[in-house]
Amino acid sequence: MNYFLRFGAYLFHPLLMPLLGVSIYYLISPRFLQPEIIQAKIAAIIILTVFIPLLIFFLLKNLRLVSSIHLKEVSERKLPLFIQCALLLLIIKFVYDPYDSGELYYFFIGILFTTITSLLLVFLNFKVSLHQMAIAGVTLFILGLSVHFKINLLLWLGLLLLGNGWVASSRLHTKSHTVIELVIGFFVGAIPQLVLYNYWL
C-alpha cells in the first residue's frame, strides 16, 4: 500500500498534467485535425511543460536551490513557479490561440492563473498542494469538454476523480501536505478552469 500511494504522486505529477489534458482533448475531440499538427502541438507541450522544467530542476538542484522535484519547502517554490509562468506564457502566445484552439488556449490560461495564485501563496508562506491543484484543473477542463462537445466522458471523469483521491491520499500518507493545503490546492486548480468556461463553452 505504501508503494501504491507513493506512486500516485509520480503518476499524477504536476508537470505531466498539462500533457494529460491536451492528450485527452485530442483523443475525444470530434473536430478533424491533421495528425501532423497534433504531433507538433504535443511535441511543443512536452518540451515546454516537461523537458525544459526538468532541465531547469536539475540545474537548480545542482545549484542547491531545490532539494527534490516535489519542492517540499515553501522557499524552494518561488523560482520554479516563476519560470513555469514564463513557459505557460510561451504556450499561450505561440502554441495555441483563442480562434483555432479556443478550448486548449483557455485551458492554459487557467493553468497560468492557477500557477500565479500558487506563487502568490508562496509569498504568503503557504504551501499549497501543486499535485492537487494540477489534477483538479485537468478534471474541470475535461468536465467542460463533456458539456462543450455534448459527449459522454463519464469514464474519463471517473478516472480523474479517482486520481484526485489517489493524489490526496498519497500526499497525506507521505505527510507532504495537510488537509487544508490539499483542499485549497483543489480549489486553486479548479476555480480558474470553472471561471473560464464563460469564454469557450
Could you explain the architecture of this structure?
The chain has 201 residues and is mainly α. 75% of the residues lie in helices and 0% in strands. It is built from 9 helices and no strands. The chain has helices at 2-11, 17-28, 35-62, 78-95, 102-123, 130-149, 154-173, 179-195, 197-200. Helix 3 (35-62) packs antiparallel against helix 4 (78-95) and helix 6 (130-149) runs antiparallel to helix 7. It is globular. It starts with a helix and ends with a helix.
What are the SSEs and their pairings?
Elements: H1 2-11, H2 17-28, H3 35-62, H4 78-95, H5 102-123, H6 130-149, H7 154-173, H8 179-195, H9 197-200
Helix pairs in contact: 1-7, 2-3, 2-5, 2-6, 3-4, 4-5, 5-6, 5-8, 6-7, 6-8
Brief rundown of the structure:
It comes from Patiriisocius hiemis. With 201 residues, the chain is mostly helical. The chain has nine helices and no strands.
For the terminal residues, how far apart are their CA atoms?
40 Å
Query: How does the helix and strand content classify structurally?
Result: mainly alpha
So how many helices? 9
Main sheet record = none
Q: Please, how many domains?
A: 1
**Beta fraction:** under 5%
Q: Low-confidence runs (pLDDT<50, min 5 residues)?
A: none
Summarize the helix and strand pattern as letters.
Answer: HHHHHHHHH
Rg, Cα atoms, Å: 16 Å
Principal-axis shape: globular
Helix content: over 70%
Mean pLDDT: 94
**Number of β-strand runs:** 0
